[in-house]
Amino acid sequence: MASSSSITTTITILFLFLLNTTAKKTYIIRVKHSDKPESFLTHHDWYTSQLQSQSSLLYTYTTSFHGFSAYLDSNEADSLLSSNSILDIFEDPLYTLHTTRTPEFLGLNSEFGVYTGQDLASSSNGVIIGVLDTGVWPESKSFDDTDMPEIPSKWKGECESGSDFDSKLCNKKLIGARSFSKGFQMASGGGFSSKRESVSPRDVDGHGTHTSTTAAGSAVRNASFLGYAAGTARGMATHARVATYKVCWSSGCFGSDILAAMDRAILDGVDVLSLSLGGGSAPYYRDTIAIGSFSAMERGVFVSCSAGNSGPTRASVANVAPWVMTVGAGTLDRDFPAFANLGNGKRLTGVSLYSGEGMGTKPLELVYNKGNSSSSNLCLPGSLDSGIVRGKIVVCDRGVNARVEKGAVVRDAGGLGMIMANTAASGEELVADSHLLPAIAVGKKTGDLLREYVKSDANPTAVLVFKGTVLDVKPSPVVAAFSSRGPNTVTPEILKPDVIGPGVNILAGWSDAIGPTGLEKDSRRTQFNIMSGTSMSCPHISGLAGLLKAAHPEWSPSAIKSALMTTAYVLDNTNAPLHDAADNSLSNPHAHGSGHVDPQKALSPGLVYDISTEEYIRFLCSLDYTVDHIVAIVKRPSVNCSKKFSDPGQLNYPSFSVLFGGNRVARYTREVTNVGAASSVYKVMVNGAPSVAISVKPSKLAFRSVGEKKRYTVTFVSKKGVSMTNKAEFGSITWSNPQNEVRSPVAFSWNRF
């Protein structure tokens, strides 16, 4: 007779087995679109008929993707694969938000004023920028529609209502607001994990309001964040329309919801899509953002995505599809200095957005790494001993938990102040935060001096001093340490990121549902907030793309992208090469792409590198994907790969990324279109790399008319004996005349990462 313990073990194993086989998940199912039987009126009806329960169907996709998403157990998912019409099934991917005095810094003055006889303010009234994020706080002054004309007739979207959102809150500025939560709700057990969340476009996080107002917020005078960064807050395209699509919730942004929102946004009639979110790298046929954005691009919609905040780690860049504008982050020429005056007479420089009462002039004792656990140096929740830190200033290492949470942990333990010190992971990058107690952030070198002082001095003390807002900071821009880096691990032959834009300490609109730190215990409320991340740089480029669309409505998304890339600059405001905040070394195209955007020059780039849908298909064919994989991306019944590129780098991209592999020679042909004056002549200038010889033929391009196209061929030859494991070199190719410089960065690598 079996013992009771063995019976219990058997029952437990059986229960776990049943749980494993019956647990439901959201799946995205790709279907052969043309296989729909005539007996079904719609694809929705056909998809529903293939499921055991009609309630399992979450979304039907028609534009961004061919297929549907459903909530299934593994057996149901496996049974669907038995149908020849089902091409692929994969689990719903989870994406995350990319967060952590802009117009003047970019040289924008009332949106360029008049451009070649064209009033861009009036022209941009017809541009619609769609933002996929955490929703919107419609009461924000940044959505004021005073003097705006009627909504463009092309707009097919709507303003949805919800338990906390009246559809009448939309206006001629904020013309659309929708929410997509089915994927999130299924992953959360069928409901909302936060009391503040509901099926509504309402932004209870703040991130979505910040990004949408950065892209196209109306001008708001006397704006500031608790007195910091005072002035006029305005988006990049202040006269453009905004449509928001809420796809991000408390646990993240689910691919099924993102696809549904992209599907809807394309049909609604947006001109630009802005996505400040992303995940890890994946083949394009498994990347829902890449798949959806291909459909957008094909319909003339410009798609801008954040590069990610995983820098300075190499090969960390996200959203790398070549039809997407991938945006890294740089600093502004504005800072928020704060100081720690130490007891040994030294003064440490840092930054802060603390706005409460000061600490006075009495020095307080400093403590570091003294608490209840080995993680007290990080100031994690529960790690500090209140008996030790009460009434003192606590030094906390940056990393692991949120910067503002560290301050809250110190405050809750009785500390009166905090100095957050960078480690090697963040280097010298300084990000200002609105802490709940007096606190400053310092870089690694300063942090090392501080940590040594606390350890070695018998009575270490400090006084924290806050100095407000300082402008004209030099050098700037500097590449943010957090900004994700290349090389591109999906297709190394495409250089990513594409550009950088302002992404550190950015002031924009905020939600009244949450405090500026995002912490539950933060009871403060503010109309504007200062945030950092590639989440912030992405909508800058989205707004600029909207302005270029208004100035050049005939331009394709690829032409707009080219204009922003080839006119980007690589010298800071001291006329020195761009630097990297991670270690203050010189930056390179794996960090800054083509450089920092320059919207004034992008208006008149001279030449553009245009790319057709057919060329993108030839690119996909060169990746050794199966035909089914390519069909998943391009949404056509079939594709012909007989004219595929011999190398993915043959794509007519505005930058170059040369992967030699086992070869010494690489040869690429590019085609440029004259969008400048007729009778223009350009000469080439090559900036080579130490280990590579570069030749360009022809060396001169003469255009007789506007719209004329010319080709040139570049030959890259690696010098003999060069063998570099995981090392990269960089150069550039520039076509110039007295009016324009059309610059393309070149990255060289000898081995795949």
From TrEMBL:
InterPro entries: PA_domain (IPR003137), Peptidase_S8/S53_dom (IPR000209), Peptidase_S8_Ser-AS (IPR023828), Peptidases_S8_3 (IPR034197), S8pro/Inhibitor_I9 (IPR010259), SBT (IPR045051), Subtilisin-like_FN3 (IPR041469). One of its GO terms (biological process) is proteolysis. Residues 365-450 form the PA domain. The active site is at D133, H207, S535. Residues 194-208 have a biased composition (Basic and acidic residues). GO terms for molecular function: serine-type endopeptidase activity. One of its GO terms (cellular component) is extracellular region. The keyword 4Fe-4S does not apply. It comes from Arabidopsis thaliana x Arabidopsis arenosa. Residues 26-98 form the Inhibitor I9 domain. This is Peptidase S8/S53 domain. Residues 1-23 form the signal peptide. Belongs to the peptidase S8 family. It is found in: Secreted. The lineage of its organism: Eukaryota, Viridiplantae, Streptophyta, Embryophyta, Tracheophyta. It holds the Pfam family fn3_6. Residues 125-579 form the Peptidase S8/S53 domain. Residues 650-747 form the Subtilisin-like protease fibronectin type-III domain. Keywords: Glycoprotein, Hydrolase, Protease, Secreted, Serine protease, Signal, Zymogen.
